[in-house]
Design goal:
The structure holds 2 protein chains of 2 kinds. Chain A has helices spanning 3-17, 23-35, 37-55, 59-68, 78-96, 111-121, 130-135, 140-146, 150-157, 169-186. Chain A is an all-alpha fold. The longest helix of chain A is centred in the N-terminal third of the chain and has 19 residues, at 37-55. The chains are: A mainly alpha, B mainly alpha. At the A-B interface, helix 1, helix 2, helix 3, helix 4 and helix 5 of A face helix 1, helix 2, helix 3, helix 4 and helix 5 of B.
Chain lengths: 187, 173
């Protein structure tokens, strides 16, 4: 694929996630997503770009929008993506820091996965950097309240040792189930 | 002796670490619903546990994206996405305050886009601001700036390409 094709894919992906496409174009692009990995990755990249841009929204522009409640307008196309950014942050953070407890399972049995996971996690991909901290100018409590997520986030922020980096619970359970079924088959 | 019926958990952990976030971004782009995106992400990796050993290691990324795509399309075809998105919008009180994504974004991404935004020609930056921060349609932007619609679109596209290129090159790739 040449550079022009890549640029065209990027633009299509941007229009796709921005709701700038007609229904026919959406159908066509989604068919393309089924065929081309480059198109799928272009969508992922476009989401990253939009999230970065929304992160950089000038503070001066937030207040007037809050006052006029422009978000209630039906054309607020950024809402689903921006909202998705917030909850995805919750899910990702939660999944990385999920505790090691899987009901009915011995932690030792999950060692191989946990070790592999910890090794990956410690490579730093999910750890906020000092630079990232500097970027933050948000009042999180205000944000949680805005999304009526107090309970979820309270539980989330009250979780234990953040230095314990373990696989998501669902992944550990899935691995464990897989092992169990194999053991049964062996018997 | 290698177990041919199951993939090494370490491989799954590695796949998740390497491709989990791009896959999540892709799903958010398709579904506009982070809960659904997370469900599909889990489904894709659950399927990887069952079947990834049948795939070649070099094609597992594309395989994961393809599995996720089919799962997402199945959900979209069930016509639940629009309903849930509307419900989500209705529940949201101050969405424009929501600007963060600490998981879909790395610090370098924000810094790269900020730098790229500052480097854009003023007329392109203005289009980005009007479209993304002021949520104006291109028709309105064109009218307000007194330029043809095609010009507004061309400027946005040029800006998007520069920003995307900067984002991709943030690690010198």
């Amino acid at each position: 694929m040449n550079e022009d094709s890549h640029r065209d894919l990027d633009w299509q992906a941007f229009r796709y996630i921005s709701d700038e496409m007609s229904e026919a174009e959406v159908d066509q692009f989604e068919a393309l997503l089924g065929e081309q990995q480059a198109a799928r990755e272009a969508v992922a990249d476009a989401v990253e770009l939009l999230c970065a841009l929304s992160r950089l929204r000038p503070a001066a522009e937030r207040a007037p929008q809050r006052a006029s409640r422009r978000w209630m307008q039906p054309v607020a196309w950024l809402i689903p993506i921006a909202a998705a950014c917030l909850l995805a942050a919750f899910f990702a953070y939660h999944s990385v820091r999920q505790g090691p407890h899987v009901p009915g399972f011995e932690p030792a049995e999950l060692d191989s996965l946990a070790k592999a996971w910890t090794s990956n996690a410690l490579s730093g991909a999910d750890e906020p950097t000092a630079d990232q901290s500097d970027e933050s100018d948000l009042d999180l409590s205000e944000m949680y309240a805005a999304f009526e997520l107090d309970d979820e986030f309270a539980a989330f922020t009250a979780e234990g040792d953040e230095s314990t980096l373990l696989p998501p619970q669902w992944m550990m359970a899935a691995v464990r189930t897989d092992v169990d079924s194999e053991t049964e088959n062996d018997l | 002796m290698p177990d041919e019926g199951r993939i090494d958990p370490a491989v799954i952990a590695s796949l998740y670490a390497e491709h989990g976030e791009p896959l999540r971004r892709f799903l958010v782009g398709m579904l506009r619903d982070p809960q659904l995106a997370n469900d599909v992400l889990q489904a894709a990796f659950a399927k990887a546990l069952e079947a990834a050993h049948e795939t070649k290691s070099e094609s597992r990324k594309a395989w994961l994206f393809r599995v996720a795509y089919h799962e997402a399309m199945a959900i979209k075809r069930r016509d639940s996405v629009n309903r849930r998105a509307l419900e989500w919008i209705a529940r949201s009180r101050q969405p424009t305050e929501t600007t963060v994504d600490e998981s879909l974004l790395q610090a370098e991404s924000v810094a790269s886009v900020r730098a790229a935004l500052a480097e854009l020609p003023a007329e392109q930056r203005r289009i980005v601001e009007m479209r993304i921060y002021e949520e104006k349609t291109f028709a309105v932007i064109a009218a307000e700036l007194d330029i043809p619609l095609g010009t507004a679109l061309a400027r946005m596209r040029a800006a998007q390409q520069k920003l995307q290129a900067k984002l991709r090159g943030k690690f010198g790739a």
